[in-house]
Design goal:
Rna Polymerase Sigma Factor, Chain: A, 2 domains, Arc Repressor Mutant, subunit A, mainly alpha, single chain, about 180 residues
């Protein structure tokens, strides 16, 4: 249905080829994040809509650059969906929570630390954010990350090492508990 918005028959054919070639990979990326088949299918559909909007940026559907481009689009859409779902679930859970006034200060500190840490990670170079995301959220090996990002495994190892060091330094500076 969304193929109707494409201008040329060539673009329609390209979009169909992209979908057929990458639908399984993109579904896995979305499902790894969302942990729900229906939400992953929605993310795949939204990814294809975004791809169609950017079809002119795709030159070779078989290139690693195209695969990475598609995976990043799918990952970002899935993460946005996950955050919306999580926010909705948190709102529902809040209504069912008993009164925890004595633990409120601890919860606020924990939430504040989480927010600060997330904000700090968001300030890291994108190259560090990407390897951290693939390592921590997808539990990928250095070799797998290297293949996905088309970089050397040694580069992945160094980026992980540097990003972890920056996080440890930040946590120590902010007094966020025992930092190893």
């Amino acid at each position: 249905m969304f193929l109707l918005v494409l201008d040329t028959e060539e673009d329609v054919l390209l979009a169909e080829q992209i979908y057929l070639k990458y639908k399984n990979l993109l579904f896995v990326v979305a499902n790894d994040i969302l942990q729900n088949q229906h939400d992953a299918e929605d993310a795949l559909q939204q990814t294809m809509i975004r791809v169609i909007d950017n079809i002119d940026k795709i030159k070779d559907i078989d290139s690693k650059q195209t695969r990475n481009f598609l995976c990043i689009i799918c990952r970002n859409i899935s993460l946005n969906m996950f955050n919306k779902i999580k926010s909705a679930n948190i709102s529902e859970i809040k209504d069912d929570l008993p009164d925890l006034r004595e633990d409120i200060e601890t919860l606020i500190l924990t939430k504040d630390m989480y927010i600060k840490l997330k904000e700090f990670i968001d300030t890291l170079d994108k190259k560090y954010q990407d390897v951290l995301f693939l390592k921590l959220n997808h539990n990928l090996s250095g070799e797998e990350i290297a293949r996905i990002l088309d970089i050397k495994p040694e580069t992945v190892r160094k980026r992980l090492e540097r990003s972890r060091k920056q996080i440890r330094n930040f946590m120590a500076k902010e007094g966020m508990g025992n930092v190893k």
